[in-house]
Specification:
454 residues; Heat Shock Protein 90; alpha+beta; single chain; 5-stranded antiparallel beta sheet
């Protein structure tokens, strides 16, 4: 399926909406999780820094003044120079509070955040971080270095710089490429499953509506799925029932009218037979014959729409051979040109009457009928062609309507009431098929019945 067609379908739209929604939600969740993780890392950094500095200051407080300037630990360095060359900074009250809680009250302390570059210039014993290390630091912390100042209990003024422990400076795991790929695949798979499940009832209704358009006797759709889907299916099945009832009423009315007309037609025929020979009698008999044909075809139309016939496998070639034999016995020019040698699931009597109507129409208007069957893909095609004058291209569909006759191409003397093709189309649809008419390149008309093979 091409992308525009996929996006135009219900499943495609649901898939895109779910995929985008999941992606946005996951991105927001990852962002919030990283922010919380970074906040936790900062808090842990501050706590560990406070513990290290407090431990060092307590030890320095116990040393003689001459030895205090020589004391240094990993990540903590005492300064000999004034603090003015450290690039300024902002007081860090949180770290100062952590230090106060871990040191005796007699030791004064003040914490100030300073740029990481100033810290790197002062901590000579520590390995200077690479640009990648600094990038990682900036991803997880705002304060990269602190200046700690104050006085010991004996009045000794101290100044030291310290940086957070390097073990805490790790890249966020949630941004790992493998994690992103797994998340994307899982989101796409979930969206596809949900989209397919949501669109399945719509497809079932569409298929049911298509079948109903050809066969009112099609089985009702099973009422399953979510509650709102079941309500829609119930409404669809109820509509099918009402259509059946409506068609049944029309069929019964047509059958009753045509049946009741047979008695007066019979009396009229008897009276016509008692008339003296002459032109008037012949004209009246011709009109009576036409009226009788209309009544008979009306009865056939009623039967074609009202009779319910079970499906069965039919050897189409044998059926057509039987029709050809009957027409040949009647002296008509008929032939069977191509055989498909395939069985088809259909309503046999309805299909036979459909083909018979097409053959009668071809013989009546074209003088001959040549039949063929062939399989194209999953479709069985039954062709009936004649050598008549054909039908204007703009009327090839109109002739299927009831009582439509084309006097310019099919003369009135050929007979017919205009119901033959109507009945044939109804019977074809009752078999789940279609009928189309095509003018042949040289001369003649071809009717093609298409049935789906199962």
């Amino acid at each position: 399926m091409k992308l525009p067609a996929f996006l135009d379908a219900m499943a495609g739209r649901i898939f895109v909406i779910l995929l985008v929604g999941i992606a946005v939600s996951a991105t927001l969740a990852i962002t919030l999780a990283d922010r919380h993780r970074i906040a936790d890392i900062r808090r842990i950094q501050s706590v560990r820094t406070a513990e290290r500095v407090a431990e060092l200051l307590v030890r320095v407080d116990r040393l003689p003044p001459a030895d205090r300037a020589k004391v240094s630990r990993y990540g903590v360095t005492f300064l000999d120079a004034p603090t003015g060359d450290l690039g300024g900074g902002q007081p860090d009250d949180d770290l100062a509070a952590l230090l106060d809680a871990r040191m005796p009250d007699a030791i004064a302390v003040k914490a100030t955040s300073i740029p990481i570059d100033a810290c790197e210039r002062r901590i000579g014993s520590r390995r200077r971080p690479s640009p990648a290390d600094r990038a990682l630091r900036s991803a997880v912390q705002t304060t990269d270095c602190w200046l700690i100042t104050g006085q010991l209990r004996d009045g000794y003024a101290y100044r030291l710089v310290t940086a957070p422990p390097p073990l805490l400076l790790k890249a966020p795991r949630s941004l790992d490429p493998a994690f992103i790929v797994i998340l994307a695949v899982a989101a796409a798979l979930l969206a596809a499953i949900v989209a397919r499940m949501a669109a399945a009832p719509i497809r079932a209704l569409a298929e049911g509506a298509t079948i109903l358009g050809h066969d009112l006797d099609a089985p009702l759709l099973p009422e399953r799925g979510p509650a709102d889907v079941r309500v829609a299916i119930q409404a669809f099945n109820a509509m099918q029932g009402r259509l059946r009832a409506h068609m049944s009423e029309q069929t019964h009315m047509l059958a009753a009218i045509t049946h009741d007309l047979q008695t007066p037609l019979t009396r009229q025929r008897l009276r016509l037979e008692q008339m003296p020979e002459g032109a008037l009698r012949e004209r009246l008999l011709a009109d009576w014959t036409a009226m009788r044909g209309i009544v008979d075809e009306g009865l056939e139309l009623a039967r074609s729409t009202g009779v319910v016939e079970a499906e069965a496998l039919l050897d189409v070639d044998s059926m057509i051979a039987s029709i050809i034999a009957d027409e040949a016995d009647a002296g008509h020019v008929v032939s069977f040109e191509i055989c498909a040698n395939r069985d088809v699931a259909c309503r046999p009597q309805m299909l036979r009457r459909c083909v018979q109507n097409l053959v009668d129409n071809a013989i009546r208007h074209g003088g001959d009928a040549h039949l063929s069957t062939e399989v194209i893909g999953k479709t069985l095609c039954i062709g009936v062609r004649d050598s008549g004058p054909g039908i204007p291209a703009d009327r090839l569909v109109d002739v299927f309507e009831p009582m439509v006759r084309l006097e310019t191409s099919r003369s009135r003397e050929t007979g017919g009431s205009g119901l033959g093709l109507t009945i044939a189309r109804i019977l074809a649809r009752r078999n789940g098929g279609t009928i189309t008419l095509t003018n042949l390149p040289e001369q003649g008309l071809k009717a093609t019945v298409r049935l789906t093979l199962t």
